[in-house]
Hints:
By secondary structure, the protein is α/β, with parallel strands linked by helices. It has helices at residues 57-66, 92-102, 117-126, 154-182, 186-195, 199-205, 208-221, 228-236, 264-273, 294-302, and strands at residues 17-22, 28-35, 41-45, 69-73, 108-113, 131-137, 251-256, 277-282. It is built from ten helices and eight strands.
Amino acid sequence: MTFPAPRIPEQPRRPTLEGSVAVRDGRRLSFAEYGSPRGPAVVWMHGTPGARRQIPVDARAYAEEAGVRIIGIDRPGIGSSTPHLYENIVDWVADLTLLLDALAVETLRVIGLSGGGPYALAAGAALPERVCGVGVLGGVAPTRGPDAAEGGIIQLAVHAAPLLALARVPLGVALTGAIRTVRPLAGPALDLYAAVQPPGDRNLLGRPEFKAMFLDDLLNGSRFQTSAPLADLLLFTREWGFGLAEVDVPVRWWHGDDDHIVPFRHGQHCVDRLPDATMTTIDGESHLGGLGIGRAVLAELLALGA
Length: 306
């Protein structure tokens, strides 16, 4: 399926509101909002790595134009969110509920990119009375239990799980220090990363508005800490705490057919096991292709439960 080129603003929209909310055990989750504070809410879960500002610029523009409220949330260990390792993926929904209550969000849609996909599905499974629909953009598939998908780069994390469990905290400190060291070279480093990616991701990362968004998100989110990606990887090697068959809300899944990080077959594997799900193939795109169709994703999700 092909999509028309989005109309891109010259400058990325800055958040209309940023802050943090108290959650369980004295911890806090930080967030960033875009669009209308009174519009229908869409929680956007960033990838691995990523942070609360990892939201495409055309999605931010769409939120302003259509009166939509997009809320990006930092997972524990990035931005100002207190470091924490959940018992499993679904455990995070209790924190999400507290954040939604604090922000006066009654019902919502949830979008998850890559590593944010499992968190979006967990919200759909645990909060069917509040979540009208879930969107997944190249989401990670389960590695354990009856829903597990075989193969893919995620298997490296499965094999490294014992080391990750033992060294997650010191590795997080080292990663934070490394990012601080290379901050002045972040732009060239992103260009170097883009140069070795498949054509879809290389082209997207070459667009100035996406490069600016990624750099802003990375540098802002990693100012204090960068342990969230390691916690994500460890959780992806465990059972999620729910089965795909328990996600009763509508799920719309977009996946690039040239995805080199999460194989397309992993996305189809999940869609086949979800009770109410459809797959949209993003032709010729790789792992980040879903970020290039933000308007189409938002429009389809907002139609769910309307």
